[in-house]
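I hope you will forgive my troubling you with a question about protein structure. The record follows directly beneath this note:
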Amino acid sequence: MVQAEHFLSVQNQLGEGPLWHPEEELLYWVDIERECFHRYSPETGRGDTFQLGQPVGCLAFRASGGLVMGLRDGLAFWDQKTSDIEIIDNPEDGRLNARFNDGKVDPGGRFWAGTLGEDDQSCLYKLDLDGSVQTMETGIQISNGMGWSPDFKTMYYTDSPLRVIYVYDFDLKSGSINNRRDFVKVPPEDGFPDGLTVDSEGFIWSAHWDGWRVTRYDPDGKIERVIYLPVQRPTSCAFGGPDLDQLFITSAWTGLSETERQEQPLAGDLFLVHAEVKGRKENEFLG
């Protein structure tokens, strides 16, 4: 049985959004509630933390250098030389306690990111290559994990409180989605689907908040395996390592009672699974 290993003690309050940079051989991830992101070298054991001054829900790599991000204040670029933040657009400006949450770059180089707020009226947005922002989905409670099939014809997208992962038909050329239907409905006893990644075989790995697990689904939505974790709130996962066969898993301790934290001393740390299957290189934003 494939098992998860304790990888790195970081005690993130709300660790999320791991990404592997194959050229740098560095792992990136965010701590949303501590308003920062981290990068770490498994080879050297050295890491850096970058404070942003506001909650950061997600980040992705830019082909031209630096990062594209989803922040409390909107979609933004981060300059790797100066650490400056350039806000591109905030389509939810004025919405009560709204911020961007999870996001990814599609196979065409566009950045997708969704939001959360207090009114259960969140949206999914797409930042196109020309800098325009389009609303792609509405009426979402908490926008979360997304990914694309290896043939680029399918997109997966999560609404966590509804315990559903949707699947759409995806058009690579236009970046459009249509024909939404349920891919997976997660039962209450298994927690809430959170961040996800799609491996090279087209199987979907979903972290389950309050579920103590990461589940691998086949392309038909059937459970292929479950990886159990010693923490209640795994948040997301991504493939990395030299051969892209290591699954890195983030977690959180936010919202746990003192007793629960004592019972879960590794909550907020990173975990690693030698998955026996390869992931795919993360797409880079081309704008």
User: Anything to note?
Assistant: The helical segments are 258-263. The two ends are 42 Å apart (CA to CA). Residues 258-263 form the longest helix (6 residues). The chain has a mean pLDDT of 97.
